[in-house]
Amino acid sequence: MSKPFFNSSKSKSKSILCITFALVLSILFIGSTNFESSQNTFALNKTLNVVTSVAPITNIVKNIGGDKINLIGLVPEGVNSHTYEPVPSDIVKLGEADLVIINGLYLEDPMERIVNTSLNTNRNIQLLKLGDNTVSPTEWVFDFSFPRDQGHPNPHLWLNPIYAMKFANLTKDKLIEMDPNNSAYYTENADKYVTLLKKLDNGIKEATQSVPPENRKLITYHDSWAYFAPRYNMTVIGAVQPSDFSEPSPLDIAKLIDQIKAENVSAIFASEVFSNRITDQIADESGIEIVQTLSDDALPGNLTAPNHTYVGMMLENMENMIVPLGGNVSSLSDINPANTYAP
After folding, report:
1. How far apart are CA 29 and CA 23, in angstroms?
2. What is the pTM of this model?
3. Phi, psi of 291 (to 5 degrees)
4. pLDDT for 275-314, tens place per residue?
5. Can you give the three-state secondary structure of the chain, one letter per residue?
6. I need a labelling partner for 210 at 20 to 30 A (CA). Which of 71, 143, 172, 182 fits?
């Protein structure tokens, strides 16, 4: 009779042991779940610190990230982005960033080097190079100011609204990857902003078609319209500025004047960043009366103006470009340049 009792006792002990083991596992599981939940909550509740470079890219990112990100643009407007060196306070901002978004294509090499150095102390920094993810090396454009033998292509992709749309979508995808809790917000912002950019693209297409074909030629001081021109059936005849961003030599100026006369170019365009002295001289000596300024880095208006945006900059550029060439910008008159992100 004792054997059954022993078996029964042993069985009870096993049951108690199993229950205890299950409870321990449950406690560990619950603890683990709570820990993961806590980590996820932290990640989802953290506002991303995003650092960008030039003002047009900063504004594109702002229209996607809106109020859900802390956004800092490093390169001051009106400063030559090709030669800009981050100051010590910029280095701190880059080191504290969660995400750094730049054009790439060698435009912001100093910023990129700092980010790579910061990875030694902050492995969580992520770098998004919009231009490198928008065009392949076979689509890079080399020209007078960005010669092939130096290996650095013309980086001004954002002046083509089609590429600006790609920048917006790349930004949306990256923000969703890093901050999935706000996916719907970023997606909604991107949809609205890309709709506006499509309207801008269509308006520019119509405006450039109003320019007499023989006038669809661009000579600019700064060589920044290489990706814009083919999109809208225009031709970049040349640029004044040499590849080292110095002033052109008298021989370079003489050659350009001869080219302007041979091509019967009707207008020359200055830069918002560089002195107009050379473009004024070329215009005088080649008989061109019209000199207008085109912007690629600086946004129009003051910081709170509704047109202080990438779209506002493009609209102002089109008025300064299309009208002197003999066209009109009526197709752009109903485009609102204001930011579109949801508050």
Report:
1. 10
2. 0.84
3. -125, 115
4. 778 888 888 888 887 777 899 999 999 999 999 999 999 9
5. CHHHHHHHHHHHHHHHHHHHHHHHHHHHHHHHHHHHHHHHHHHHHCCEEEEECCHHHHHHHHHHHHHHEEEEECCCCCCCCCCCCCCHHHHHHHHCCCEEEECCCCCCHHHHHHHHHHCCCCCCCEEEECHHHCCCHHHCCCCCCCCHHHCCCCCCHHHCHHHHHHHHHHHHHHHHHHCHHHHHHHHHHHHHHHHHHHHHHHHHHHHHHCCCHHHCEEEECCCCCCCHHHHCCCEEEEECCCCCCCCCCHHHHHHHHHHHHHHCCCEEEEECCCCCHHHHHHHHHHCCCEEEEECCCCCCCCCCCCCCCHHHHHHHHHHHHHCCCCCCCHHHCCCCCCCCCCC
6. 143
Can you give the pLDDT at residue 194? 98
Residue with tokens 């909604």: 188
Lowest mean pLDDT among 151-155, 164-168, 249-253: 249-253
Question: Is the pLDDT higher at 32 or at 109?
Answer: 109
